[in-house]
Amino acid sequence: MYIRHIVVGEIQTNCYIAGDDAAGSCIVVDPGDEADKIIGTARRDGREIAAILLTHGHFDHIGAVGVIRDKCGAKVYACAHEKELLASPSLNLSSGFPRSMSENADIYVQDGDMVNEAGLSLRVIETPGHTSGGVCYYSETDKVLFSGDTLFEASIGRTDFPTGSAGILITSIREKLYVLPDDVSVYPGHGPYTSIGFEKMNNMYVQV
Hints:
alpha/beta, 6-stranded mixed β-sheet
């Protein structure tokens, strides 16, 4: 799998450009800001953005959605349970920043759905807790998980924002993510890469 990692915006959000090695297209996971930087990086690598995959609807993960959608014709995927949060500046936390945001997806997914874009087949794993409609995207073939703000290196996402729940998040990680193979690479919404095996051994927030 081709994966390009870009850190964008003032919150330093991880944005990922990914696709099959042989594809001329790509997906973008969580384009939080700096749309032109994201588009330019993809095009320099010889790829056009076919789809945007959102792990959840907070402003620092959706800020570049509109521009990329307009310039590239990309389809936007998000969890069906995140529809209200995406549309509401108060819920997606953008109302306290210079630009209030309201977004929507073209395709709403749920647990177990497959996203087939840019030569990849990614399974949707619903992992509520950071938000009620948080999801991860998992490539079983490549053993890659895009975890958004559900799981970080030795940490977990905050749960004190609207629709968050610490108990639900811990259950999501334990029951949905820790059942994946230990050698699955985890690409989180903030911070460095990690793996399922490392987190099971070292994450003090979620005990196996």
